[in-house]
Amino acid sequence: MFATYLIGLREGLEATLVVSILVAFLVKSQRRDRLPQVWAGVGLAVALSVGFGSLIQYTSTSLLRTSESRELFEAVTSVAAVVFVTWMIFWMRRAARTIAGELRGKLTDALAVGSLAVAGMAFLAVIREGLETALIFYAAAESAAGGTGPGSLLALAGGIATAVVIGFLLYRSAVRINLSRFFTWTGALLILVAAGILKYGVHDFQEAGVLPGLNDLAFDISNTLDPGSWYGALLAGMFNVTAAPTVLELVAWVAYAVPVLVLFLRKPAKPAQPAKPSRSAEPVPPAAAPAADTSDAPADVAAVPSPRA
Length: 309
Description:
mainly alpha
C-alpha cells in the first residue's frame, strides 16, 4: 500500500502545485472572478480521471471473460504505466524550473479569450496528472498482493490528501520544502516501483502465453524471504520483489531499474560558458562592405516596412 500512497503523494503534489500557480496568478492579477472557471476545470478533470480508473477496473473484472485475456490486459496496462512513470519523472525534472512561467503565459492567453478558455486551460493542466494517476495506480495495485481493494484506495486517497495539504501550506507560505530534493527522492522510489510493475507485466505476459519461461526460475529464496512475513510483504507490495522470480522477470527488472536510475540521478551537464575576449586584444574595425546593387531588385522589396516601424 505504500507504493500507492507514494503514487498519490507524487502525482497529487504535481497537480496541486499546478493549481496553486494558476490560483496565485489570478489573485495577484486581480482576476478573482475567473477562479470559479479554474475550479470547474479542475473538478471536471478529477471526475474524468476517476471515471477512467473505474473503466479500467470494470474492463478487467467484467468485460474480459477468460483468465488469459485478463492477464494480457493487466500486462499491457503495466507496460503503459511504466512508460508514463518514466516520462513523467524525467519531464518533471526538466520542466520544474520553467513550468510556472509557462502556466502563467498560457493562463494570460486564456484570460484574453474568455471563461471557457480559462476552464479548458485548468482542465488540461490537471487531466494529465489524473489519467496518469489512475493508470499507474491500477498497475501498481494489481502488482501488489491486495489488488485494487479498499486498502489500496485508502492509501491512494491518503497520498492525494497529504499532497493537497502540503500544496495549500506552500501556497499560504506556511511551510518551505526543497521541491527539487523531494521530486528527486520520490522519482527514484517511483523508478523502483515502475521496475516492479514491469516485472509484474512480464509475469502476466508469461501467464497469458505471450512470453515463454513461466517455469524457468532465476532463483528461489523462499526459505530466506518469507512471503508471509512483514518485510516480505513490504518488498512485494512496494517493489514487487518476490522470492522466486522467473529469469525474464529478473532480466526485465534489472534492465529497467539500473540504467533508468543512473540516468535519473546523474546531474545534468552545465552549459559551456562562452569564452571571454582578451582585454589586450584591440577590436578590429570591420571591413567596409561593398554597396549592394539594387538596380535589378523588385520594387516591392524596398517598399516592405520594418517590423519595428
